[in-house]
Amino acid sequence: MSEGLDALVVGGDHDRVVGEVVDVVSRTAPEIREGLVGRRQPVGGEANPTGDTQMEADVWADDLLGERLRAIEGVGEYASEERESVVDCGEGLSVAVDPLDGSSNLVSNNPMGTIFGCYTEPIPAPGTALVAAGYVCFGPVTTMVVATDDGAAEYEIDGGDRRLLEGSVTLPREPTVYGFGGRVPEWSPEFTAFAREIEGECKPRYGGAMVADVNQVLSYGGIFSYPALGSRPAGKLRLQFEGNPIGYVVERAGGRSSDGEGSLLSRDADELHGRTPVHVGSPDLIDRLEDALA
Ligand code: AHG
Ligand code: MN
Ligand code: MN
Ligand code: MN
């Protein structure tokens, strides 16, 4: 196993490959961070497969991560939010990446992240096929959370070093913060009623980058949602690159994930770029949310 995974065990034959994926993502993170300078503008007229404006940094980070992840022996597929189709690269784990999550925050210089998931099945795959997932958070410092079936660990990335901060990340039970995406008039009446309750119990913290918004839920306890909207019944976030990996991380940290009815991880994966409502956070709040939406 890779030195950086420390206490986490993946299981079976996947330890080495997941360890190398984690190494590539964490060694590339400082380069991505530095390379954002000068790449904070849209690529002229281009949109990615889900219609997002592509920033120069989105395309560049995808190229860099894609090249390195595909070179790992035991990675069989590479898929990204920024690519139309899955790239076949041999036999082995399928790696799905959101190279820059929250890339519209490049304009305002707010936090962003990189998300990855390692699936044992060809992509699109259900979250039950994940053996590891995680994210890098580009905040005031660069941190990384990695989850396997064994649990979740948090690291601090300093140049080429990845130092373990917490070997057993646990979502605090007491909820403190919430962040809900989308315009309020587009929420369903049921979600709106739930939000009104939560507003009385927690502090609003929404920053427009799921990685950073979920990272503070992991730190302080609470809930993050990007719900179904009137104009987008499946919400905004993508199951393969965002919903599944983040749901996996939160569940391994003792939280819950939901698409409104049940765990994100049991949602059918029909389309590569398919969307899903995303709700993650403290188990009690997700239970209440599902009751409210039922
Ligand atoms: P990405 O930058 O990878 O396309 O993801 C953006 C996502 C997610 O990070 C965030 O939660 C949400 O979009 C923000 O959307 P709004 O601008 O609608 O708040
Ligand atoms: Mn995007
Ligand atoms: Mn994203
Ligand atoms: Mn992205």
Label this structure with key terms.
294 residues, alpha+beta, Fructose-1,6-Bisphosphatase, Chain A, domain 1, D-Maltodextrin-Binding Protein, domain 2, eight-stranded mixed β-sheet, five-stranded mixed β-sheet, 30% helix, globular, binds 2,5-anhydro-1,6-di-O-phosphono-D-glucitol, binds manganese (II) ion
Structure in words:
The chain has an eight-stranded mixed beta sheet with strand order 4-3-5-6-7-8-9-10, sandwiched between helices. A five-stranded mixed beta sheet has the order 12-11-13-15-14, with helices on both faces. Strands 1-2 form a two-stranded antiparallel ribbon. The mean pLDDT is 95. It contains seven helices and 15 strands. The protein is α+β, with helices and mostly antiparallel strands. The longest helix is centred in the N-terminal third of the chain and has 22 residues, at 14-35. Helix content is 30%, strand content 28%. The chain folds into two domains: 5-166, Fructose-1,6-Bisphosphatase, Chain A, domain 1, CATH 3.30.540.10; 177-293, D-Maltodextrin-Binding Protein, domain 2 (3-Layer(aba) Sandwich), CATH 3.40.190. Bound molecules: 2,5-anhydro-1,6-di-O-phosphono-D-glucitol and manganese (II) ion (3 copies). One manganese (II) ion binds at residues 48, 52, 81, 103.
